[in-house]
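ok here's DUF4783 domain-containing protein, seq below lol
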Amino acid sequence: MKLLTSFVLILFITVSVRSQDQKTLILNQLKEKKIDSVLLNCDLPFTFSGLSVKGEEVIKDRNLLANRIKDLVKRKYFDQYFASSDVERHRDEVFFTKRSFDSDGELESEYGLIFAFRKGKDGKLKLWRIRMAG
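and the structure came out like this:
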C-alpha cells in the first residue's frame, strides 16, 4: 500500500512539474517574441479580456489571433509585466501583478495580466486566455 501511495504521489508531482514547465515555456516564448512558437501553443477559441475597449474578445481564427498577438508584442504591451512584476502561479493561471505606491509608501494602484492555460485536444497544456485585471 505504501508503494502504491508513493507511486501515485510521484506521478502527481511529475505531472505538476511538466505542466509548470509547459507554462514557463509558453511565457518565455512570448517574452522572447517568438510569435510562431507561441501560436503553436495557443488553443482556440482564444479569449482576450480587458485589453481593449471591446471588453471581452473571443477569437476563433488562428490568423486573427496571430495578428492580435503580433500587434500587442509590437506595441510592447507585455514588456511592462515581464520586466518587473510579482509572479504568482495558481493551478491553470499565471498572474503578473504590478503595484505602484505613493510617496508615503501606500498602495496607489494594482493591476495585473493573467495568462490562463488548459489542456488542448492533443493533451498538451495550451494558452487560451489573456486577461487584464485591476
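fwiw The beta strands are 42-49, 56-59, 86-90, 93-101, 107-119, 125-133. kinda neat tbh
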